[in-house]
Amino acid sequence: MLETAADMFRKISRSVGIEWAPLNVPMSRRLQTLAATAWVCLALFGQGTLLYLFLTLLYSDYWWLGILYAAWMLNDIDVCHKGGRTIQWVRNWGWWNYFRDYFPIKLVKTADLEPSKNYLFACYPHGVLSSGAYCSFATNALNFHKLFPGLTPHLIVLGGHFLFPFFRDLILSLGTCASSQESLLYLLNPKRFQGNCVAIMVGGAAEALDSHPGKYKIILSRRKGFIRIAMKSGASLVPVFSFGETDVFRPLNNPENSLLRRIQEKVRQITGVSPVFPLGRGMFQYSFGVVPLRSPVTTVVGAPMEVTRNLEPTDEEVDEVHAEFTKRLVQLFENEKSKYLKNHEEVQLVIT
């Protein structure tokens, strides 16, 4: 009778388009799903939730703790532009390993990087939430320090994230820093640091709007600020590509000039954040939700491109370095895509 009821429930669910996860899923996979769910909830709702908790604290009997924290935060507000505040204990949290194994995510190197130099990792594609770059450079789950001994990664994120109480402390502990010229030049200053790897999502929030499964459309032609930063600091440019990044969500169809796309662009211009409405699966069913899909992501770190330090590069000099970097990024994509994409013969890299 129980089996009959269960079969009937599945039949009804399928008729309305819902496919439930089986009950006999191993505990390890349940923990992986929980870790992925927690990550996406942190990314989507973490700022608002922690801001609410801070305001609640201010209006509680412990308001004085909120005042003390606010005073400390104001005094500490520029740390995201001054190298951040990495806490290895947070980067080593065990749940990052479950997050890594959920997709799974892998980090691959194609060349050795000398720890005596600084590097600017130009990462593509942004995808919806940059899961590959996040796991590779903001956690120790992929053993970055073993692959690249003597190097220290810093993932660059929007400066606005560091204005939210408590949330800022969490992302600072992961080694992230603000996406400002001041921050990048500080981290890449050869007189101050050696072995820093600054990972920046060059396409940014605008590129997230073009993230669709099986498609690799990136924004590079008009992005030259990172080239200028590399030239001013003398940091080597390293192309980084996350294969499979665009497959972990199924965003709504938003062709150019559509009403949805115009609304998204307007919101992005105002807030700096792209409202991409990540569609994936749920915790207990595979049909809808905001949990990312179980789709492999492989972040490949290319060979370094040496850049001569030039404190005042001309536009022509920037264009020359930009053209060479573009060539190397395309070469990395073409050389590696057959290893990590099933339909690699049909996939093309579109640069805008």
From TrEMBL:
Pfam families from the UniProt entry: DAGAT
TM stretches of this protein: 34-56
Family: Belongs to the diacylglycerol acyltransferase family.
Record-given protein name: Acyltransferase
Lineage: Eukaryota, Metazoa, Ecdysozoa, Arthropoda, Hexapoda
Enzyme Commission number(s) of this protein: 2.3.1.-
UniProt GO BP: triglyceride biosynthetic process
Topology versus the membrane: Multi-pass membrane protein
GO molecular function: diacylglycerol O-acyltransferase activity
Coiled coil: none
Source species of the chain: Bombyx mori (Silk moth)
Entry-linked InterPro entries: DAGAT
GO terms for cellular component: endoplasmic reticulum membrane
Localization (cell): Endoplasmic reticulum membrane
Keywords annotated in UniProt: Acyltransferase, Endoplasmic reticulum, Lipid biosynthesis, Lipid metabolism, Membrane, Transferase, Transmembrane, Transmembrane helix
Name of the gene: MOGAT2
